[in-house]
Specification:
The structure is a homodimer of 402-residue chains. The first copy, chain A, has helices at 13-22, 34-42, 53-64, 78-88, 102-105, 109-133, 180-199, 238-247, 267-279, 299-310, 340-343, 353-365; strands spanning 2-6, 26-31, 69-72, 92-95, 138-144, 159-164, 167-172, 202-208, 210-212, 252-255, 261-266, 287-292, 295-298, 319-322, 398-401. Chain A is of the alpha/beta class and 402 residues long.
Chain lengths: 402, 402
Amino acid sequence: MRILVLGGDGYLGWPQSLYLSSKGHDVTIFDNLSRRHFDLERGFNSLTPIKTIHERVAAWNEISGRQIQVYIGDTMEYEELASAFRDVQPEAVVHFAEQRSAPYSMIDRKHAVFTQTNNVIGTLNVLYALKEFAPGCHLVKLGTMGEYGTPDIDIEEGFIEIHHNGRSDVLPYPKQPGSFYHLSKTHDSHNIMFCCKIWGLRATDLNQGIVYGFETDQTMQDARLATRFDYDQIYGTALNRFCVQAAASYPLSIYGKGQQTRGYINLKDTIRCIELAIITPPAQGEYRVFNQFTEQFSVVELAEMVADQSKRFGLETQIQYLSNPRVEAEQHYYNATHTRLIELGLQPHLLNGSLLESLIDLAIKHGEHIDRNQIMPTVNWRVAKNAINNQGDPLFKRVSDQ
Amino acid sequence: MRILVLGGDGYLGWPQSLYLSSKGHDVTIFDNLSRRHFDLERGFNSLTPIKTIHERVAAWNEISGRQIQVYIGDTMEYEELASAFRDVQPEAVVHFAEQRSAPYSMIDRKHAVFTQTNNVIGTLNVLYALKEFAPGCHLVKLGTMGEYGTPDIDIEEGFIEIHHNGRSDVLPYPKQPGSFYHLSKTHDSHNIMFCCKIWGLRATDLNQGIVYGFETDQTMQDARLATRFDYDQIYGTALNRFCVQAAASYPLSIYGKGQQTRGYINLKDTIRCIELAIITPPAQGEYRVFNQFTEQFSVVELAEMVADQSKRFGLETQIQYLSNPRVEAEQHYYNATHTRLIELGLQPHLLNGSLLESLIDLAIKHGEHIDRNQIMPTVNWRVAKNAINNQGDPLFKRVSDQ
């Protein structure tokens, strides 16, 4: 299948591109390299060394004999996007090309505006490009479980049957996103649903949980194929960050009470889920939503698992509770449905000791590159202008150690 | 009270500003004059002559002795917005400053992108200006009943109690907006709700029905105080347009079956509703939603009322059914709650014969200015690139006459 991967140079986009290429699909990457640019701007870096997009693609060609084509382009520049669509004539588009960090979106007005403009208008451009150049193409869009927030009822997959005053209807599930980033994904969902209705486009909106993990069958084949591994306060997701903190003998930092429960998914399952969505596309005009995660954990549970596993390396890991920089319920009901991808054939890689061990081991191996100043949260949801200093904001002082 | 009216030069913003000024409030208008610019661009015009913002304000001062201050500025230019907030230190902000036409937003990509950028990012700027310069100020935001779409259950005011799998929660009412314009208002609603939560802002989101009418107690005092009256395909709302069509002996144009039912409200009630919201503000941190309309009608009902009333002027008015340029349910359940503004004291001006008579009379008086080429719909929801020609698109041909 001809597949265009928007944002194919990122943490998920790159292993996704490799995976789809390994399965014989004709993969084209479209990426503006903005994630690498942010590293340059802030002095951040992936814990694991990553190669340039050109080196990556050349290495993959050398190893697999397969070609991945690359467009350096921006979804905000319609002509760049349009020429990729015109040239590739994609049958599926996987859309990762968004600013993907909640803390980034909460730094200040400039970063909030960038996030919502880039994500919402970028996706609007993707929708117009689909309509104009590839109306039969299947859009596979990365959304987030964070669109739902933490309602006091079960979370369903995109839609819910509501009974009210003696009548009933199946309606979009109400959204309560918790950052300007999460809001941008909610806006996207509404725009995409509408375009499926008016233009007969077809789309799968994947409300993805928090992704952890580093290796896939493809990236393991050569160090030049490695994907990035972020542990910093802006881009590092909880589990990856905990493993780095454990490896460096830093306390595992929990925001607030740590009872925040979320859906999680292994990187290997993410790329498989997207393949499953691609090979079983929705009908023309259909907008469908899958909740893309495999297990639920509270932050404390994750931290305890990491602390426990780190003992195997002779590490004594502490857990540290910080006052919460985010505005969120710290204790809440959480039960989210996630059956549709299982029905399509997903066989989950559940979180286990050996996976945690491999992540901690990875962090130990790259221990010399760990920069503590990148880890502690400095972006406060309650403040409209955050200075991202790399020393940790005194506001997020240690509340207690466990 | 110090009140900043964003978009205070428009159809609603102007009479709103006059009304609040007449009540003794200290009113400042902030407007980028974009609605007038669109007229210049397209060769459109208000049916009734309107004065420049400078002449209007001077006339009001002459007649009432009251001053309205004016900032020519754009919500997209944060520094312009910030200086108005800094100078005025508003206690309430009424936010009309959005691109307000559904057909405009559906013309092509450029117009869709403009609508969503201007409205969503403009409002994001307003939220940051509130947080930065006036955190206790009450935001009164104009939304639309069109955010809800036409669900098969009763529409509530912003939130709905959902019972699901033995649990229940009160959640944001699910939204199914029907154009890129309506979507922009839904995006705004989510962003505003979030800022009330994280920053403790206070906001009233008014999901307004379709406004009809022309005169208020203030605009009637002098011809120089008149507000605009649009009947064109882009900005003309259904009832105003029907009255113009009747006056000019053109058939009343109904899109599709005409059973589309919506909420409607008299201009006089709109400005009173906003006053009611202002004088009974929400608590700090509260986000509340009122459905701001007084009656529901189907398009056919409205057309029949206008046809009936036009007989008083000796007019024989036909009703014409056009194939629907929009993608919408043409027959549907519709029952929307609208009690909260009544509870605050609204005494509705319901649609009656004498109001219709006055609108038709107005259109007859200005009959020489009616341009038929502005009336017929040329923007097709199903097409991504509409040429707005002024001759009527052959696609929207007459289906049948009644």
